[in-house]
Amino acid sequence: MRLSGKRRHNGADRRLDAARTVGGSALCRRAADFMGRVRRALNSRGASWLIILVALLLRLAALTCIGGRSLYYENTAYDRMSLQLLAGVKFSPYWPPGLSYYLLVVHGLFGEGLLAARASILPFYVLLSIGLYALIRQFGSRCAANLALAAFAVWPSYIRWAFNPSTEYPAAALLVLVVWLTLLTSRRQSWPLATALGLLLGSFALTRGSSIGLVLFVPVYLLCVTRRPMPAVVPLLIAAVPISAWLWKAHDMTGRFVMINDSNAQNFFLSNNQYAPLYNTCRGGPVEWNEPPELTRMEQQIDCQPPVQQQQTYRELALRYLRARPDLFLLRTFNRFRAFFCFPIHRGEPLAGRATTRYGWFGLGITALELCFYWPIMALAIVFCFNLSRVGFALRDGVLLLGAAFVYAAPCFVTCSQPRYNFPVVPLFAVFAFLFVDALSTRTWRELVRPRAVMFLVLAFFAYIQIEWIAIVATS
Q1: Is a pLDDT exceeding 70 seen at residue 152?
Q2: Which tops the pLDDT comparison, 415 or 284?
Q3: Backbone torsions φ then ψ of 349, nearest 5 degrees
Q4: Which of these, 76, 74, 59, lies nearest to 158 by C-alpha position?
């Protein structure tokens, strides 16, 4: 009787296991069918434009919640500068002029007002999407490119800044387009491509002062890759035209030489003086620091000087301090590097309905959603960069993307740095991440990734930066 009972029990277990196997197989088939439909949809020709259209509608819906009111942590000085240029007023240019000239055209066509300035940033989202799609298609499939577009369509940071009249989106779009055109110029070596590349480089330098290094990096890269002077010299000469025109305009307004804008020397001083914090050297960042009264008095004294003397004073004070404490300069530079690659903090606008310095539940929720994009993409990009040959990615192309990202970011490492400043370079790292995902669709992880101590060390360092940032924000 026991034996027969045991047999009945074993038979029931086998039937249950068989049912589970059938159910599991059915679930796997459904998941495979679903992924197949998603892959086919992403491979369709019209998928990219559909994604961009849906993303634009999402950003327009957010814009209707804001209108023309100001948001916290936002700089509208470029819009005010455009109105000064439109009125023909002579002034000392504290900010780079590129975005302000663009807003000047917008206000000339649609009238003054912050709402027009906000809506004018939406075309830069389209340009960023086109550049990102085209850049990924140079190396990977249409599915990978459309997957990247879908990620950036709902990425919180890339929604939040799509209606901010500042340089985040223009810089991101121009950086991706510059890298894409540099890649095309290195392969085709045509005059129209080199000319367009030069115009983009010149416009980029006038939009973000930190991009001036790309005006030299790109020609040097093209010269090394093509071994011909034409692809290198033409972009350099073309880029010099808009830059020279603005230098002449700035001299006409101020009566002195202005290296694009006046904020550079002041930022260099504010980030490198005896009163600056060792980690958070950027004013107006997510974690604010109390300014010592000695620094406030020093700035007030410098503000009483003529503009030419102000720049000299800021520069001399910063260099004098650097010579006295080079160790602290290196420490601050290392800390600024870490701060640059932290994740951005959200305050829930426009969902919060008002400008606020508190994070709140909306802000925490959006920040958590931000991490679902930023952390995996950066981690996959790091793994990709240590396995270029296994993925089949040319080393010179990797040098172009990484070189452009770090040449652009380098000024932030010696002056002001905060997580929001990585906005323009993240799409370049996303290229690596989505190409790696594309490779994983046809090959296994073991085939693509070679375990290396250095790779795990970089991943651990990136994780440490994020954990440290969480601790800093939580205790601030």
Answers
A1: yes
A2: 415
A3: -80, 145
A4: 59
| Lookup result for tokens 């800390």 | 335
- Contact present, 174 and 204 (Cβ < 8 Å): yes
Q: Which of 105-114, 259-268, 393-402 has the highest mean pLDDT?
A: 393-402
Proportion of the chain above pLDDT 70, given as a percent:
89
What local confidence, expressed as pLDDT, does residue 44 receive?
81
| 162, 126 contact by CB (below 8 A) | no
Of residues 165, 168, 172, 201, the one with CA closest to residue 185: 201
In this structure, the number of other CB atoms found within 10 A of the CB of residue 372 comes to: 13
Sign of CA dihedral 100, 104, 110, 113: positive
Cβ-based neighbours of 266, under 8 Å, separated by 6 or more: 310, 311, 314
The whole-model pTM stands at 0.90
Cα separation, 213 vs 307, whole angstroms: 25
Residue of 177, 161, 162 lying closest to 52 (CA atoms): 162
- With a CB cutoff of 8 Å and minimum separation 6, the contacts of 303 are 310
Q: Which two tokens stand for residue 306?
A: 């003529």
Nearest to 56 by CA among 126, 4, 111: 126
